[in-house]
Specification:
eight-stranded mixed beta sheet, 41% helix
Length: 273
């Protein structure tokens, strides 16, 4: 099983497919690398070296017991080490769903020389308003509390299914993603939520200085992120905004064909590197 050793000796899971330009896909909170499985084959065929990975505490990665091992700067360093493992010295396209998009934005701000373009799926730039930020942290805290009490039992079959695996539970890709989510260590995911996802600072005021091309893609039915997508598309200097019809939050699974087509068409417009 391919593992990348981080700066604090935690082993995070990663896999790479293809030999083209590096494309790192980061999932949402509570999700795993398996959520992006439907994109591997078509993106490789489009010329990418597709890199999937699990955050610390998630999926097949190790889950440190020390809460202090979970903080945003460490996660960004983990991301950089996965990129260096998969494509040493090469600038990458960073794609992320939900929290994965916010993490990609933070990485692009911290390491602009390592980013060729951004793909932001049903994501947002975080919050400026303190009350909104506090409300978000409380929401993530409730998810963490639930995970610590009962784990992932019933998680992908209940209300969380729409943001975990999508609204179309019958799809094989959704079922595979659900099995991977349920197999996780709930305590590691909870620690990641409280220490990383909840307190992650917003980047709204930094968007104007992210000069790389950015695709802002949102599912038509994902009302929670529709406005965030509009804000990012307006503030990023080189953004393209796409809305996928009849899709919710997990747009890449719910409408995989339309999603893949839109992303590949966008990738073909990027300047050669």
């Amino acid at each position: 099983m391919p593992m990348v050793t981080t700066s604090d000796s935690v082993k995070v899971y990663a896999e790479a497919h293809g030999d083209g330009f590096p494309l790192l896909l980061s999932p949402g909170y509570c999700q795993t690398h398996e959520n992006f499985r439907p994109q591997v084959e078509p993106f490789v065929a489009a010329g990418a070296r597709v890199v999937l990975w699990d955050y610390r505490g998630h999926g097949k990665s190790e889950s440190p017991e020390d809460p202090d091992a979970y903080f945003l700067e460490q996660v960004l360093d983990d991301m950089g080490r996965v990129l260096e493992w998969a494509a040493p010295g090469r600038p990458a396209v960073l794609g992320g769903l939900s929290f994965g998009g916010l993490a990609s934005l933070h990485f692009a701000i911290a390491h602009p020389e390592r980013v060729r373009a951004l793909l932001l799926f049903d994501s947002g730039p975080g919050f400026k308003n303190r009350e909104a930020q506090a409300g978000w942290e409380a929401q993530v805290g409730r998810i963490a509390d639930r995970l610590e009490m009962i784990g992932f039992e019933g998680y992908v079959d209940g209300r969380a299914s729409a943001t975990a695996i999508g609204r179309r539970l019958d799809l094989p890709a959704a079922q595979a993603a659900g099995r991977a989510i349920q197999a996780q260590d709930p305590h590691g995911v909870a620690r990641f939520g409280r220490r990383v996802v909840g307190p992650a600072p917003g980047v709204i005021d930094d968007l104007a200085r992210i000069e790389v091309p950015a695709l802002v893609l949102v599912g038509e039915l994902d009302t929670a992120y529709a406005r965030a997508g509009e804000v990012m598309a307006a503030k990023l200097p080189n953004a393209t905004h796409v809305v996928i019809p009849d899709a919710g939050h997990v747009v890449n699974i719910e409408q995989a064909e339309a999603f893949n087509r839109a992303v590949i068409e966008y990738l073909l417009t990027l300047p050669a590197r």
